[in-house]
Predict the 3D structure of the following.
Amino acid sequence: MNYKNIITELDNGLAIVTINRPEKLNALNRETITELHEAFKALNADKNVKVIIVTGSGEKAFVAGADISEFANFNIEEGQKLAALGQELLFDLVQNLSTPVIAAVNGFALGGGLELAMAAHFRVASDNAKMGLPEVSLGVIPGYGGTQRLPQLVGKGRAMEMIMTAGMINAEEAKAYGLVNHVVPQAELLDFCKSIAAKIMKNSSVAIGRAIEAINANYTDGVNGYNVEVTAFGESFGTEDFKEGTTAFLEKRKAIFPGR
């Protein structure tokens, strides 16, 4: 499918989604959020896609925030609808995809950009990356899950400081905080993410999807994550991937998972 603001590439089970608005530092407007929703949903439904990498075009920014011009004149009701719809269409969708999503954070990841990166299953940053939630400097708060996911990743105290000061942290600080898993030179960012994706793709996509569900359950109010784990664990025994994985282990060979 052709998109105006994003580029999707497929290569042997790996999908790369690139937000492509370099003149706006890849800022998220409504059209881009809708296109990302459509792309992620389609890729997740494609059983040939095993891993998704999301990144931004150019060397300056992953996503430098939301497009402020679109909501500068919103009232209370419009603001609430903006946050609710954005979370439903994109941020919650990405977090709950059964296909692993790696955020390759190149350059600025601010506001909605950092919120998108945090919705991914984990993050790798280029050494020139800068991250922050500057919303309070505009008289608003993070509205795409930032007040919830940031404390989960870095702890309440660090999240409070980052949000209250509206400041940015660099890549090494983000790694020390636990916000990103790895920091690599920008020129090596995509190749490094591809190397992790290759390791993921050797494993059962069905089991990975269930593991994502169980891990996310621990962060969902009113849900017992242990019960979700027990159910997902048991269901794994009924899959073709389980039969192949255990048979390959006993036969001392590498498993070739059918993804079913």
Q: What stands out?
A: The mean pLDDT is 95. The first helix runs from residue 30 to 45.
